[in-house]
Amino acid sequence: MTCLLVAITAILGWNLQYLAFDFEFEKFFPNNHPDSRAYAEHTEQFGYDNDYLHIIIEKPSGLFDSDFLKRASDFEKSLSGIEDVDHVYSPLSLQHVIKSPTGLVIFPLIHSEETSPYQLAQDSARIFGNPFYRAAFSKNGKALSIYLNHAHFGDQPRSERLITAIQAKADKYGIENMRLVGKLSAAGVFISYIQNDFGKFLLGSLVLSFGLLLLIFRNLKSALLPFLISLLSIVWLFGTMGMLGLKINLLSSLLPPILFFVSMSDAVHLMNALKKSGGHNPKERIKEALKIVWIPTLLTSVTTAIGFLSLLWINTEPVQLLGLFAALGILIAFVITFTFGLLVASVTKYSADQRILEVPKGWLGWLIGHKRFVIISSVLILLISIPGIGKLKINSFLLDDLPKDSQVRQDFEYADNQLGGSKPYEVRVEVIDTSRSIWEKEVMDEIVKIEDYLLQDYPIAKVQSPATIIKYLNMVNNGGLNENFKYPESERRYAQVLRLKNRIDPKRLDKLVTEDGKVGRLIGFFPELGSYETDIRNKKMLMSLDTIINKEIISYRITGTTYLIDKSHELLSYNLMKGLLTAIGIIGVILGLYFKSWKLLVISLIPNLIPLLMVAGILGWLGISLKMTTSIIFTIAFGIAVDDTIHMMSYYLKNENADPIERIKQTFKHAGSAMLITSIIMSTGFSLYLFSNFGATFYLGLFVSLSLLIALIIDLSLLPLLLITFKKDAQKR
Hints:
Largest sheet: 4 strands, antiparallel
Strand content: 5-15%
Distance between the termini: 37 Å
Number of helices: 27
Helix content: 55-70%
Oligomer: single chain
């Protein structure tokens, strides 16, 4: 057995080197959802809407300076030569076109070569008077945006290489004030923080756990066994992930403290049983200890794993992987505890240590004397929590979890405030009759209704669509005047404008209409409103469009990365409740079968539901929104908190003393010690998350720690009173 454990540990330890870090927005999309499938089809035709960078360059003293514009233009031209760059668009290379009797007159929108201040003033007036041109410039007129479309990356090194190349070009051409807004810049900083958190959590878990064990047991030998079991569990779990080629993301970076401190619970209960057993040699001690903890520990491992597995109901890959591997880690810890742990125990003598944490001797007497106070207090806490639960709201801001002083967060906020938005918005349109084309006026009449709604009623500051092209061509056809940037209403004018379409760069049209002309898209950028507000606006838009769009001509749907991430949050409430209720139901059935009493089943669930309701109420009263990263608080808290209840009730029911009060005293003496130790270790362990760079992780640590402490208090107060009250049912067991 020893050789097998060493071999497994060596193999999995070797695979730790293959662990990598990842932050892919697409992985947060709802799995196997109709909107996800529709987006997959959409990307095959138009590519990923998130494969872009807004390169924002600023000049505080004013953009229209010949020297700055020359350097900016050279910088923009150089970007096309960078590997993995597909297209580059900006007002620096855009041409202003006018149709004249002699043909098309074409000249630069911005005269970036040396020119007179008068010419630059004309360029400025033309740009800021036209919504099509104006969208690429900041509200304060001190920055412009270069839109860069890049290849779809599946690995971080390519992303970093592109960012580095862009920064090198900026340095070469003297671009001093530059902001990068897009998936690449956000993913880079997320991965940096994930790596930092992962290392911090792992090191913190090691130091804190061993320090707590030494402080509690005050004996190196006693502290070492639980620590080594937890360490082996970490090596086995992450070695398995490395062997499978799975990457660590924002959520899986939370695993070290979860696994380290939860796995320690099994070892502490085993240690406590070994210390309190009455055998005269290691073999007898192990046999007696197993009678006490084997079944309860198996039950707690299974129920905790079920609690984590309930995260599979949340239909996004990172959350599901967290649930799956946390559950796997819990079961691995159980196996290691009762193999490696027993091997060590078989050759080690553990003497009873009276200095170990124990429930105060006068506690039970106080409880019995204040029974009414404990019950009324529990009911009042629930009554206060329930209105708070009603205030809970599902809402998420993409970069809200980053520190406020993060440069990436500041860059995105600048784009939101000055350039109309940082988040891509996408609407897909298709002709119903496949013999028709997007470019037919009757079809375009419907598309322009969608564009006008987005611009005026949503509102989205800048939108591009097939209708935008028609508006631009109408301006070209009518002297290039800004006031003619509008949709031609008459058939004759529309036909005149459409003839100019062949003069447009085909690459620009490819991004808006498929080659066969059957499918089009409206794309834009809007500021971070939060998933709650965005969902309200989307539903309002679809209701309005349903009343004005002729659905016999076109079909339309919102799609894109932003929509799908928000859709995940919309589904979150239902899936979270379904998963949690499923976990409670399965765990309830297991406990009911074990206790052979439905009354005892209800008693066992009460101490574990109260902390969840209290935490939910606190979240609601404090105005903290639910999102994917904070929603897992409830499943983690329930899965872990139920452990203490199982151990306490199991020992209580196995005690053959006829007096229920005496049985509670013995339960406090034996199971109570381990409950105190494990709860203190786990709540302190989860407090490591308070040092995270992510806001959501901070709240996870705060509220899981709080819920575990609340569960401990209820297990040591309300639960004993319930057991005494239903003593007849308990005695039957």
